[in-house]
Design goal:
With 265 residues, the protein is an alpha/beta fold. The protein has one domain: NAD(P)-binding Rossmann-like Domain (Rossmann fold, 3-Layer(aba) Sandwich), CATH 3.40.50.720. It is built from ten helices and seven strands.
């Protein structure tokens, strides 16, 4: 995708990676619509960042997605980029169903069914645009598991394969599929992660992502250097060492802990 001149809808972007990316893309000359569930956060974002539009959307609710899509397209008929950012991450214990089942259902609904419903709501419009992009958001954990977050890992692996599959199906259209693969980033996705020394600073992550989008406009996957440790473990032949290193640190102290390149045991 081009780095400027787009109209971009980013549901799930009232904080963390989504909001930081929205602000940077707006600064690069894009029209940006931020979506989220909490109206007070949306109102604050609109007040603090003139020029950014906001739309209320709950990506776990099919009716809310349909309503938000109608609002976005009515106000921004030139929309050409959808970023399926919304996601949750839960620590789970799979020894007993009462300690994981409700969590797993919520994670799959938000992280897998949400993006599917979002794509369904916008795909016909995007296919009519001369140049359009759907940005899916997986994770380094799609390629190597963090043992305390089984459902999250599985949901992001599903998003990776979904991205691979629909990229093939939509090859006969103007719609590109770009998969963003974050490593651990200093956000509140898990308790303690926003202060974790193992996680990548948010500003650094977004700056590298935007630089990659600018320098590699035809890239199918956006991978900052820190995620390649996880992404290519199997290809390098050190997958077992990657998994051991990923799970070696105290997860409650550091959230989604990922050693920087070269720091793996």
């Amino acid at each position: 995708m081009n780095i400027s001149g787009n109209t971009i809808f980013i549901p799930g972007s009232t904080s963390g990676i989504g909001l930081a990316l929205a602000l940077e893309l707006h600064a690069r000359g894009n029209t940006v619509i931020v979506g989220g569930r909490r109206t007070e956060l949306l109102d604050r974002i609109a007040a603090e960042h003139p020029g950014i539009d906001t739309v209320r959307i709950d990506t776990t609710d099919a009716a809310s997605i349909d309503s938000a899509a109608q609002e976005v397209l009515a106000k921004h008929p030139d929309l050409n980029v959808l970023v399926t950012m919304a996601g949750i991450m839960r620590i789970e214990d799979w020894h007993r169903p009462e300690s994981f089942l409700a969590s797993a259902e919520a994670v799959v609904t938000t992280n897998v069914l949400g993006p599917i419903r979002l794509i369904a709501a916008f795909i016909e419009h995007l296919r009519e645009q001369p140049d359009a992009t759907i940005v899916t958001v997986s994770s380094g954990l799609a390629f190597a598991p963090l043992k305390i977050t089984p459902s999250y890992n599985a949901s992001k692996a599903a998003i990776h394969m979904l991205s691979e599959s629909i990229r093939l199906q939509l090859a006969d259209t103007t719609v590109k599929i770009v998969e963003l693969e974050p490593p651990a980033v200093r956000t509140s996705l898990l308790p303690g992660q926003e202060h974790s020394e193992f996680a990548m600073p948010l500003e650094q992550f977004v700056a590298e992502v935007v630089a990659l989008l600018e320098s590699q406009p035809d890239a199918a996957e956006i991978q900052v250097e820190r995620v390649k440790f996880l992404r290519y473990g199997e290809a390098r032949g050190d997958y077992d060492q990657v998994v051991d290193a990923l799970n070696a640190s105290d997860p409650l102290g550091g959230g989604q802990v990922v050693p920087a390149p070269g720091e793996a045991a």
